[in-house]
Amino acid sequence: MNDVRELLGQAADDAGRPVISTEAVFAKAARVRWRRRTAVTATAVCAVAAGAFVVPQLASGPASPRTSSVGSLAQEPGESPRDVRLLKLLPDLNGTVEEVSFADIIKHVSPPPPEPSRTGPLDGQYEIRREGGVGYLTIDVMDAKAVEKKLGGGAPVVDLCHPTNGEPAPDNCVREELSGGRVLTIWSDDMDYGDGTPQWGPELAARLTLADGSLLGVRDSTGFEADVVQGPLLKTPPLTRAQLRELMLRPELLPGS
């Protein structure tokens, strides 16, 4: 599943490299060995933005003021903000949605770097606040050329739930073959990787591969702990598995919608 970690990590390449990796496995020992081999290519879309830096302790006080938010993230002329459009696709969401920059809230880069190029209309990093906690959604679309380049000319693993290269299978992995040559896979990750910062909480991850070779990746995270945080972890991911599946199938996330 190295290709999956590479692909879903594309969204935040410009913000830093990951310190954590992905899919939880059945045995703790196997999980640790595998994650040490693959830490630099984490599946998590937003985890790769975290970077590798050491902090003395976790902050217990309020987060520092942000230097970027949805108000300063560029939009196409005449378009509604991305987080507003995303919220319309999540009518059952319990909480608020705000587009954020991981370069700001995790790496504290000031001034924030230029916005990365976007393939999908809602590609980005979104903060979800509810019940006193803070989680995150990340959305990233890669076209076929980007997928091929990322994999060095290869192709994504056909069945993430049943890897054939000796790597452990993700937890609670469900693969669906859909109409039009699409394949949707959703799995759980406890993100129990050990030391490092930020420390990401449990999450759901999803990948939708399309017939033309493009790929949509979404990460549904309970949040992270670091030196400065926007709030405590959510008790559960922002979206349920059913809500995540529904979002993955929305054409509004894909180019040309």
How is this structure best described in words?
- It contains 6 helices and 9 strands.
- The protein has helices at residues 2-8, 28-38, 82-88, 102-105, 144-150, 241-248, and strands at residues 96-100, 124-130, 133-142, 171-177, 183-189, 199-200, 203-209, 215-221, 224-225.
- The strands form 2 sheets. The protein has a 7-stranded antiparallel β-sheet with strand order 1-2-3-8-7-5-4, with helices on both faces.
- A hairpin with a 5-residue loop joins strand 4 and strand 5.
- Mean pLDDT is 75; it is low at 10-72.
Q: Secondary structure elements and their pairing?
A:
Layout: H1 2-8, H2 28-38, H3 82-88, E1 96-100, H4 102-105, E2 124-130, E3 133-142, H5 144-150, E4 171-177, E5 183-189, E6 199-200, E7 203-209, E8 215-221, E9 224-225, H6 241-248
Antiparallel strand pairs: 1-2, 2-3, 3-8, 4-5, 5-7, 6-9, 7-8
Low-confidence stretches: 10-72
- What is the helix tally? 6
| Averaged pLDDT | 75
Apparent shape: globular
Number of strands: 9
Structural class, from helix and strand content? alpha+beta
Major sheet description: 7 strands, antiparallel
What spatial order of strands do you see in the largest sheet?
1-2-3-8-7-5-4
Rounded Rg:
17 Å
Helical percent range?
A: 10-25%
How do the SSEs run, as a string of H and E?
HHHEHEEHEEEEEEH
Strand residues, percent: 15-25%
Question: Could you give the distance between the termini?
Answer: 30 Å
